[in-house]
Amino acid sequence: MGVAIVDHHPMMIEGARSWLAAEPRLTLLSTSTDLETLLADGQSSVDVILLDLQSGGRLVIDKVAELCRAGTRVVIYSEDTSPATALSLLDAGAIAFLGKNESREHFVQALLTAANDRPYVPPVLAGAIVADQSPDRPDLSPKEREALLLWFQSMSKASVARRMQVSEHTVKQYIDRARIKYTRIGRPAATKKALLARAIEDGLVHPDEMGPDARHTEPIKQSSQGEAT
Q1: What is the CATH number of the domain that holds 54?
Q2: What pLDDT digit, counting tens, does each position of 151-167 carry?
Q3: Phi, psi dihedral angles at 32 (to 5 degrees)
Q4: Virtual CA dihedral for 143, 144, 146, 150, nearest 10 degrees?
Q5: 34-39 contacts: CB < 8 A, separation 24 or more?
Q6: Following CA atoms 57, 58, 59, 62 in sequence, which dihedral angle do they give, to the nearest 10 degrees?
Q7: Are residues 175 and 103 in the same domain?
Q8: Which residues contact 15 (CB under 8 A, 6 or more apart)?
Q9: Residue 118 CA, distance from chain mean position
Q10: Full-prediction pTM beyond 0.85?
Q11: What are the phi and psi torsion angles at 33 (to 5°)?
């Protein structure tokens, strides 16, 4: 999986390079001290951009949303680990947020999961989520949360229904209600992956609750009606 790094401190780039060198699943393809320079060079083979918030002498928060809208996977790492900064970057579309004081383990896992379009919650981000009191977190019922949790454990909706002792139609209603609640607050989650990312971002579902298979949810399939299942 190809990685590009943007950091205004060459020393930080070298440190990241040494961490990546010990991980055979990740390959450092390019580095730059400036985001615009990196983008001008073209990065079609890059799976993830590891981006410092400081680039070219300024903060590049505005660029994060632009990159994510274009389909670029972005992992932010920064000295600024305030909850407001971390959550605003998640809302802009970043897959993960790392503090520069996080360990190599979190650094590598964030990149690996991002390259596979999966969210990752390191300690700094977990703290931001727990501290967040924003009103834009949906109020899911216990049954809605249970249905999501079981569904995210790679279970089919039929399996969730058997576990919860309800009909498959009821399970679908729980999941659809959760989607509706996210849409109402302006944070739509039309697919299973998107809904999982939202739930983890908001602390409604914790990765530890999902067991060893949780990081490898079954591929999203589209039914004849276009529903993500």
Answers
A1: 3.40.50.2300
A2: 887 678 899 999 999 88
A3: -160, 150
A4: 140
A5: 34/6, 34/8, 35/6, 35/60, 35/63, 38/4, 38/6
A6: -130
A7: no
A8: none
A9: 6
A10: no
A11: -90, 0
